[in-house]
Amino acid sequence: MPVKKYSIILLPAFALLLYAVMPCAAQNQPTNQQTASEQVSAKINTNTADKADLEKLPGIGPTLAERNIQYRQEHGPFKTIDELKNVKGIGDKKFEAIKDLITLE
């Protein structure tokens, strides 16, 4: 009988504690954008970077890295950073996420 009495009190108290702690834990998690930005310690030269370096950019996986390299091989080096938008899969949103992390020099 005493176990049931304690469980009626402890279970809601434990649930309330978890409810209070979860938002705090979520705030301390870095976003993907922060994590990716921290991985790029120096700007990446999109005209010379290899696949592994390009993949360090946020939102750039193996496929987009390969497309970037293929575009360079077919059209020559990028003349402006905006030209990256010509690579299939790099739209305005992805471009905004990486433009401050890349260079052409």
TrEMBL record:
The keyword Zinc-finger appears for this protein: no
Domain of life: Bacteria
Domain Helix-hairpin-helix DNA-binding motif class intervals: 52-71, 82-101
Signal sequence extent: 1-25
GO cellular component: type II protein secretion system complex
Single Gene Ontology MF annotation: DNA binding
SMART domains in UniProt: HhH1 (SM00278)
One BP annotation, GO: DNA repair
Any Pfam family the entry gives: HHH_3
UniProt xrefs under InterPro entries: Competence_ComEA_HhH, Endo/Exo/Phosphatase_dom_1, Hlx-hairpin-Hlx_DNA-bd_motif, RuvA_2-like
Gene3D superfamilies documented for this protein: AF1531-like domain
Keywords, ordered alphabetically: Signal
Database matches in SUPFAM superfamilies: RuvA domain 2-like
Cited PANTHER family: ENDONUCLEASE/EXONUCLEASE/PHOSPHATASE FAMILY DOMAIN-CONTAINING PROTEIN 1, ENDONUCLEASE_EXONUCLEASE_PHOSPHATASE FAMILY DOMAIN-CONTAINING PROTEIN 1
Name of the protein this chain belongs to: ComEA protein
Organism: Thermodesulforhabdus norvegica
